DNA sequence: ACAATAACATACTCGCGAGTATGTCACCCG
DNA sequence: CGGGTGACATACTCGCGAGTATGTTATTGT
C-alpha cells in the first residue's frame, strides 16, 4: 500500500461525487430496482467498472448516496438551530426554509423522491434509518422550538405543536416531491415557495391564537 | 363459448378478488418490482398459473389492483359530497374521515403505500392517472366545499383553502402510510384518529379566523 | 527507465423471475 | 355417461442485469 499523491486523491474524490450525483438522479427517476448500474454509469460518463471500483455493490452505492445527501440536509437544519440570537418563531421559519427551500434536500428534491419511493423494503436497513432519522428528527426539532417559543411568550402556554408539525412536515415533503411531476401533471403544480411560506405561517398562527380543540 | 353457470362465475369472481387483495398486500409490502408473482400466488393460496388465468401480465395485475381499490376509495368520498342537508364544515369533516378513516383506502392504508412507492416510473401510465385523479381530485373536492362554506357564511369571504388543503391532504397521506411502520419505528407512531381530527379542525379554523397572511 | 499500482474499460458468467407450454381434474350440458 | 371447456397446477424457456474476471493505460516512487 503505497501512499498515493494528493492529485490522485482529489481526482478520485471528484469522480466519487460525480457517481453519487448520477446515482441520486438515476435512482430517483427510475427507482432503485428498475435502475440499471449501466444507466448510472452512462449518466456519470463512465462504465460499470468504475462504479465497482468505488462501491462493492449496488446497495452500497445507494447507501452512499443517501448518507451523503442526508448529511448535507441535516447540516443545514442544524445551522438554523444554532443561528444566534433570534426568537423561536423566526427560527422555525428559518429551519423549514433551509430544509424545504428550493435549492435544498439533494439537488431539486431528488433525495426526497428517492426516500419516499420503493427504497423502503428493498433495503430494510436504509429504510429504518431514514424513517428514524429523517422526518421524525425534523418534527422533534420543531417540537423543541415550540417549547422555546412557549417560554419566551411567543406562543400560548397550552399550545400543542405535535399534530401540526407532523402534518406540516409530511405535507411539505410530499408536495416537494410532487413538484417534480408538475410538468406532466399540471394539477400538482404550485408556487412552492409561496406554499411553504403560507403553510409555515399557518402553523405558527395555530400556536399563537386560541384556535383548535 | 358456452354460457357458463352462475356458480362458476361467482367462484371465479371470488378468486379474482382474493388475487387482487393478495397482490395489494404483496406489492405494498415488497414493492412492485421486488415482489415475485410467486409471492402473490402464495399469499392467495394458489399458483402462478392461476394469476395468468385472470391477468395477462404483471402490470395488468397491478393496474387491476389500483383501479379496484381506488374506485372504492372515491366511492366513499363521493358519498360524503352527496350527503344531504349538512353544512360545508360538517361535509369537510365527513369527507376527510371517509377517505382517511382507519378502515379505508384499501385495507389498512395499503393502497396509499402502494401508490406512494416506486410504482411511479415503473408503470408510467398508472403513475400519471393516479397523480391526476388521486390527490389532486381530493383537494379539488375540498376547494369546492370551501367555496360552499364561504357562501353559507361559515368561512370568511377572503379565505384561501388551497394551501391548507394541499398540505393537509398530502400530510395525512404520508402519516397514514407511515403508520404501517410504527411498529418498527416508534418515532412514527401516533394516535392517527386524533391526528386526523385535530388537523381537520386546524384546517377549518384557518378558514374561519382572520389568521394567515 | 522500470516496476508497481491506481483507475478505469471490456467481455463474460450466472441466477432470478416473468412469461409460456402443457398437463390434469372437476363440472356441466346434452 | 362421455366429451368439452373452464380453472387451475406443473415444468420449462429465456432475457435481463448484478456481479466478476481480465485487460489496458497513465502515473508515481525508486
For the terminal residues of chain A, how far apart are their CA atoms? 67 Å
Shape of chain A: elongated
Largest interface: A-B, 51 and 51 residues
Compressed to H and E, one letter per element, the order of chain A equals HHHHHHHHHHH
Q: How is the biggest beta sheet of chain A arranged?
A: none
Average pLDDT metric of chain A: 88
Q: Which residues of chain A sit in consecutive blocks of at least 5 with pLDDT less than 50?
A: none
Radius of gyration of chain A: 20 Å
- Content of β-strand of chain A: under 5%
**Helical percentage of chain A:** over 70%
How many beta-strand segments of chain A?
0
Q: How many distinct helices of chain A?
A: 11
Report the structural category of chain A: mainly alpha
Oligomer: homodimer
